[in-house]
Amino acid sequence: MKALFFPKLDQSTLDKRISIALLALRVIVGVAFIAHGAGKIAAPFSWMGPDAPVPGILQALAALAEFGGGIALIVGLLTPLASLGLASTMVVAVNFHLSKGDAFVGGYELAAVYLFASIAFLLAGPGRYSLDFALATVRTRGIIVRDEVDRSV
Q: What is the pTM of this model?
């Protein structure tokens, strides 16, 4: 119990705790984006209706960003690209609610939370427990191994 409230603050412990927090946040935000994007991906060019002020291609990009970006966040793959797409979509969503005069609570609050979560992933990355990290580790180890082999010849 003491370790929970008064943790060791060495870099290794801190990195693990941050990575666990990023994983938990990636999973819950990813599931939420998939849930919001699932209905949109079913009719990607027309989910806003026939009188939508947004062209069909932009509706499809938003549907792809939400559904595909949610999947990408959960597994931690292409996190910067997914986060950029999600943040862009949420900027439009926040702007849409603000232009209608919606209040924060019950209006653009959820879109704003998703926007800043996406920005956090864009800036912080996916953490240690992600496919992005695993692939980067494999690439780095491969380069190191090749360099060591080259030096030994």
A: 0.82
Rounded Cα distance, 123 and 35, in Å: 24
Residue that the structure tokens 């062209």 belong to: 55
The distance of Cα 152 from the centroid of its chain, to the nearest Å, equals: 42
* Secondary structure (DSSP) of 27-48: HHHHHHHHHHHHHHHHSTTTTT
Vertex 116, ends 60 and 64: CA angle to 5°?
Answer: 15
pLDDT in tens, 16-59: 889 999 999 999 999 999 999 999 999 999 999 999 888 999 99
Q: Are 118 and 86 a contacting pair, CB within 8 Å?
A: yes
Question: Under a CB-based contact definition with an 8 Å cutoff, are residues 79 and 134 in contact?
Answer: no
For the chain, helix, strand, coil in percent to 5 are 80, 0, 20
CA angle 13, 18, 24 (to 5 degrees): 130
In angstroms, the first-to-last Cα distance of the chain is 53
Distance CA 133, CA 146 (A): 20
